[in-house]
Design goal:
elongated; about 70% helix
Length: about 80
């Protein structure tokens, strides 16, 4: 996944989240989807940060790999 694909996916997830949140009351499925969106978005931002760091140190950004959800979710914000 290249930088543009990562950013496009982040924006698509943000739009989906916005649409889901507009409707106020959420079904259990919608709450689950919102949680999934948040986790996927966190993983994508982490992947982008990895790519940026590799680029900064003259490494191949395509070697960056998505980290498992539990790893990313335990990072301090």
């Amino acid at each position: 996944m290249d930088d543009q694909q990562i950013h496009d996916r982040i924006h698509a997830l943000a739009e989906e989240e916005r649409q889901l949140r507009e409707h106020g009351d959420h079904s259990p499925e919608q709450r689950e989807r919102l949680t999934h969106i948040e986790h996927e978005r966190d993983q994508l931002w982490d992947l982008q940060r990895q790519r940026d760091a590799k680029r900064q140190y003259d490494e191949d950004p395509d070697e960056a790999q998505p980290r498992p959800e539990p790893t990313v979710e335990n990072y301090l914000q």
